[in-house]
Design brief:
By secondary structure, this protein is mainly alpha-helical. The chain folds into 2 domains: 108 residues, Periplasmic binding protein-like II (D-Maltodextrin-Binding Protein, domain 2), CATH 3.40.190; 73 residues, no CATH class. Helix content is 39%, strand content 9%. It is built from 6 helices and 3 strands, in the order H-E-H-E-H-E-H-H-H. It has a 3-stranded parallel sheet. Strand 1, helix 2 and strand 2 form a beta-alpha-beta unit. The longest helix has 28 residues. The radius of gyration is 23 Å and the shape is elongated.
Amino acid sequence: MARGRALTAAALAAALGTGGCGRPPAAREAVRFWALGREGEVVKDLVPGFEKRHPGVSVEVQQIPFTAAHEKLLTAFVGRETPDVAQLGNTWIPEFTALGALERLDARVAASRALAPGDFEVVAFHPLGTCRIGVSPERGVVDPSHESFDTPGLYVTDGSAIPSSLGVNPQLTIMALALRAAEIIDARLDKAAALRDHS
């Protein structure tokens, strides 16, 4: 993978880019890996084992806070200074795909002697239902308007309000419920302001 050309969505690219390439062990290739948040700390512990299994590779991990990662990745792409491998938030993938910033790995997987296409699965998780919507405190944490039963004025609008797994990516459902909740909150604030103005 050429530095500055593209980002990848998984650390798998580091292994694919070097596995079975026939380089002599003396020629250590540096792979720049940008890891986000807590994963950046954890992946550093995995590097020595990876480098032992792949003696021709040296992995340079740069830990980036999630709060700065999106802008840093976009800036790096525009400036042609992307890392060899980067962790991406799964909601960023469509944007980076549209920009042409991601490199497809199909050919690398097909050419690899160490990995078959069925050897890995790309998975993302959205925790749901931990603060579920219900019609009563016995059935949920928040009411159908997303307001907490126990703490009036507290609204929960993320995936935790969805009562159960949807079986599909819940991103659009979460956005729709958050928009609905915002409209409810806005209407309640307008009503409270009108009552205050008339008193």
